[in-house]
Amino acid sequence: MLARYGRADIRNTRDNFLSAAGKHGLDARGLPPCFSFFAPVQSGDDDRLRWRDGIIRDGQAIDLLAAMDLLVASSNCPHPRIRVQSFVRSR
């Protein structure tokens, strides 16, 4: 994150998930791939991922149903595909 945002103290989502999992005795082997319902990323015909502004609208929602007990972690981090000129971290 240092190269992109000029700050070394900004973690990525996977690191945040590893930190959350560690609090419950889990490590990277028990951590599935990260995914985002809300990042407007689509794959093209060439299978490359592209950021698509404007495809997510205010008020859209997703309902999830868990058929077993599970541990859920949420992380709010800048997406690597978003085109940003600067990043301001709020405290």
The shape, in one word, is: globular
The largest sheet has its strands arranged as 1-2
Q: Please tell me the total number of domains.
A: 1
Integer average pLDDT: 76
Number of strands: 2
Beta-strand portion reads 5-15%
Q: Low-confidence stretches at least 5 residues in length (pLDDT < 50)?
A: none
- Write the H/E string, N to C: HHEE
Largest sheet: 2 strands, antiparallel
Radius of gyration: 16 Å
Strand-pairing-aware structural class? alpha+beta
Q: What is the end-to-end distance?
A: 17 Å
Give the helices and strands, then pairings.
Blueprint: H1 2-5, H2 13-22, E1 41-43, E2 49-51
Antiparallel strand pairs: 1-2
Tell me what you see in this structure.
This protein is of the alpha+beta class and 91 residues long. The protein has one domain. The chain is built from 2 helices and 2 strands; from the N terminus they run ααββ. It has a two-stranded antiparallel sheet with strand order 1-2. It is globular. The mean pLDDT is 76.
Structure characteristics:
91 residues; alpha+beta; two-stranded antiparallel ribbon; 15% helix
Quick structural overview:
The protein has helices at 2-5, 13-22, and strands at residues 41-43, 49-51. The chain has 91 residues and is of the alpha+beta class. The chain is globular and about 40 Å long.
